[in-house]
Design a protein that fits this description.
By secondary structure, this protein is α/β, with parallel strands linked by helices. It has eleven helices and seven strands.
Length: 391
């Protein structure tokens, strides 16, 4: 194949991929053309037969009326309010004279109410005493505060952190809320409080990191996030959250870095040993050579590459997708039977391993030769690379 022709095929493949990404369906479901479970519609028209009247009969019948009583649907009523909430009881007596009447009960109606958060001032009044000889002055000691020289108490600091990181309420909106309550705080003051409070809870982060990394089986992935740029007002730069999940206990650790380089995972996983499951990002390949770590990959990511290549290399892509469907069926069966880890391993060794071994026999030469006939070398490289990551 000439260089110009190869370049044309590459551009054509990229154009088809871009067109599918913009205008095509996003689902990745694969249904084989020869799937016996796929229903078909037999819509061939039958021949219209001719007819003629050969006999006439008179038929009579009796019509009966049946009354159907529709029972009203019982209304479930209002949602019952949680019992742990404080009840403020309001007694309402009849507006008429109840002299000589006997009370037979109460009709209770509950209304969910809300009291807005209150800003208040803690005023520490320390009494001062002088000795009789005026040699010294005695005064009570102030209790320690979370942030020295800051006028914010621990309750306010905790609420600011929860509003920002749990409820995703930006600091400028919190400033507006404080101002409505008559307290004007500068943005720099709030950022200093947030920074100082984050430093205080650093031991909690270290404890979480130790708990996550003590597992011998981790999932790792990175995701981009827009970060406000302090040097350029109104603009953002791209940062990355590196996410690590303890796959046994389901605890998750978020580690932020400005870039997507391998420095992020290599630093936090420097003492990790065990199984590390990732996608095909090259930043994780350094762990394949590290002693004590077994790098494994994601079947869903590998399957996506074959799904995208169906139109270009249908024979090999269809074979891989069909085999992966069998693998997913085995996993569904294990979940339906609520099998334990040891039982799932036994099923995978008995049923899944032969399928993976058959996929492993798809070597690079076979894939590339088939792709050459379809004029799609990019598809071949993607298929072979993703397959090698999973097998």
């Amino acid at each position: 194949m000439s260089k110009a022709s190869s370049r044309y095929c590459n551009y054509s493949s990229n154009w088809r991929s871009s067109k599918k990404m913009i205008f095509g369906s996003r689902h990745e479901r694969y249904v084989p053309h020869d799937n016996p479970s796929q229903l078909t519609l037999d819509i061939t028209a039958d021949a219209v037969a001719t007819c003629s009247v050969t006999d006439v009969q008179k038929i009579s019948y009796i019509r009966s009326k049946v009354n159907v009583e529709v029972a009203p649907i019982a209304h479930p009523g209002r949602m019952k309010l949680p019992g742990h909430l404080r009840r403020e009881e309001i007694i309402i007596e009849p507006a008429v004279d109840i002299t000589d009447c006997k009370k037979i009960g109460d009709e209770i109606t509950e209304v969910l109410e809300y009291t807005p958060g209150e800003l208040y001032v803690k005023q520490y009044r320390r009494a001062k005493y002088a000795k009789k000889d005026n040699s010294a002055v005695m005064i009570g000691e102030l209790p320690s505060r979370p942030l020295d020289k800051a006028m914010a108490g621990e309750g306010l600091l905790a609420q600011i952190i929860i509003d920002k990181y749990v409820d995703h309420l930006p600091l400028y909106r919190q400033m507006q809320r404080f101002e409505r309550a008559g307290v004007k705080l500068s943005y720099s003051t709030l950022t200093d409080w947030v920074s100082g409070t984050c430093n205080l809870i650093t031991p909690l982060f270290e404890a979480l990191k130790a708990e996550v990394l003590q597992s011998n089986y981790l999932h790792a992935d990175e995701t981009p996030i827009k970060v406000m740029d302090k040097d350029k007002k109104g603009e953002t730069h791209r940062g990355y959250y590196w996410v690590y999940q303890n796959s046994i206990d389901k605890t998750v650790l978020f580690d932020y870095h400005e870039g997507r380089g391998r420095e992020g995972p290599t630093g936090i996983l420097k003492d990790f040993t065990g199984y590390l499951q990732t996608d095909g990002y090259v930043g994780y390949e350094v762990f394949a050579k590290r002693p004590g770590i077994t790098l494994i990959h994601c079947m869903a990511h590998a399957r996506r590459m074959f799904h995208d290549a169906v139109d270009n290399n249908s024979e090999l892509a269809a074979y891989a997708l069909q085999q992966m469907q069998v693998l997913y069926a085995i996993e569904r069966k294990c979940r339906a039977q609520s099998l334990g880890f040891a039982e799932i391993r036994e099923v995978r060794q008995r049923e899944s391993l032969p399928i993976l071994q058959s996929l492993g026999r798809m070597d690079e030469r076979t894939v590339c030769e088939s792709a050459a006939e379809k004029c799609n070398w990019k598809s071949a490289r993607l298929q072979y690379r993703t397959l090698r990551q999973v097998i």
